[in-house]
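To the structural biology subgroup,

Please find below the input and predicted structure for Helix-turn-helix domain-containing protein, which we are adding to the shared reference set this quarter. The sequence is reproduced verbatim from the submission form. If anyone notices a discrepancy with their own records, reply to this email rather than editing the shared folder directly, so we keep one authoritative version.
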Amino acid sequence: MEQHVNPSSGPAGSNELGDFLRARRAALGPHQVGLPDDGRLRRVPGLRRDELAQLAHVSTEYIVRLEQGRTRRVSRPVLDALADALDLATDERAYLFALADATPPAPARRQPAQQRVDPQLQQLIHGMPDIPAMILNRRLDVLAWNTAAAALLADFAAIPPGERNLIRMTFLDTAYRSLFADRTGVARRCVAVLRREAGLHPDDPALTALVGELSMRDPDFRTWWASHQVRGPHRLTKTYHHPVAGTLTLDVQQLSVDTQPDQFLATYTARPDTPSNEALRFLLQWSARISDEKGRAPDRDDDHARGPRGNPSHGPIG
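Predicted structure (tokenized):
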């Protein structure tokens, strides 16, 4: 079965499929795929087009046309062969097929001005005061959070709703980025997550706007975006250097929400009987004491979102 390839798919309006193939080809050395060194001088890193063609059992001219966006149809067997030849991981293979989808992208649709979080989810995250927890969407917009998450990561209430995005904060919020022990590694993973979402949802104007803003404002983002690395949900362990609690190494769990496919629950936990667990307990006790002294919870500042005695009750955000 043949598939149509739209060479101008993707948020940037460019030949995303060709760009991805070139980037993956450049990142793969011949020795990694069992090809001998023929002694020829390599003017560019990675596989040559003729080597990729040999591995995928297609012509070199076909690879040229594909990378230049001049091939309008790509079959599933060819996509499989290219994925095998480029030694693509599961996330990268899915991204390749998404870029070469037979169904043309739907017309850009207006995103709802607000994404609502179900009251049951709000109740859930506020019912776990000892576990930092947030509700995020696939762009990593922060839709709701509990007091523990605010203590650990940021006072989200002080951030304008349109800027409450973890990827944006990783690049543009100095205080947030300084939390991470491996700042570069975290930032690069953020780009890979965003690149995957851009391939899967090329009609999302909010995502396109986020990519555009970060490309304009951060040179590292531009460089890493051009590398076409993609990454899906994975088990994560992150180390933070917190200004109050010191160093914490936490496991990050990402749990899907069946009733809201574009949302997921993220939690941050420390392993029992570790210094990180003690540091997290200290941080939460400190946060509770500060909250009592101020007479309000630190994770919302809008009056309409407060329940009795100033307890937070997250409403929709944009």
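Summary notes: The mean pLDDT is 81. Residues 275-294 form the longest helix (20 residues).

Regards,
Lab coordination
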